[in-house]
Amino acid sequence: MKLPPLQTVPKVDLQRYAGDWYVFSHIPYSLEKGKVGTLDRYVLRPDGKMDNIFLFRRGSLDAPLEHWKGVAWVHNKATNAEWRVQFIWPLRVPYLVIELDPEYQWSVVGYPNRKLAWVLSRKPTLDDKTYADILKRLAKHGYDPARMVKVPQRPK
Predict the structure, then answer these.
(1) Which helix (H) or strand (E) holds 135?
(2) If residue 40 lies in a helix (H) or strand (E), which one and from where to where?
(3) Residues in the chain, pLDDT under 70
C-alpha cells in the first residue's frame, strides 16, 4: 500500500527552533548505531542557513564527546518545516518537521520514505504520556512506532 507524502507542520519559527535538541528516540540507521547521549544543535547563520552540529558519545555516556558539523537550509520557505541537511558533500537529505509542540519543547522529524524518524526534546527526558501521544501521532503519519528506539541520555 502506497502511503501519501508526509505532511509537515504548518509553520516553524526558526528563531524558536534554533538551539539544542536531545535525540530522545529514533529509527536507528548505520550512522547513528552505537551512539548515545546524542544531541542536535541548530545555529542560525547570517547567510540564512543553519549550522547543524550533531554531538554524540560512542557506546557509553562516559565516552568522550564527539561531533559532526553539517549545514541545513530551509527548502520550503512558506512553512520553514522542510529542510535539507548536508553532512557529507554532495549528499543532501530531507528533514521534515512533522510534529511540533506549541511550546517548542519537543519535535518529530520524518523522512519521506518513512524509514527514518527522530523524536527530539529540549530536555534529555520526556514524560511517558507525552511520548505515548507522540508515538500515536507517528502511527497516523504511517510509521510503525515499534521501530522507534530510545537513545540513552545523561540526565540533566
Answers:
(1) helix 128-140
(2) strand 35-44
(3) 1
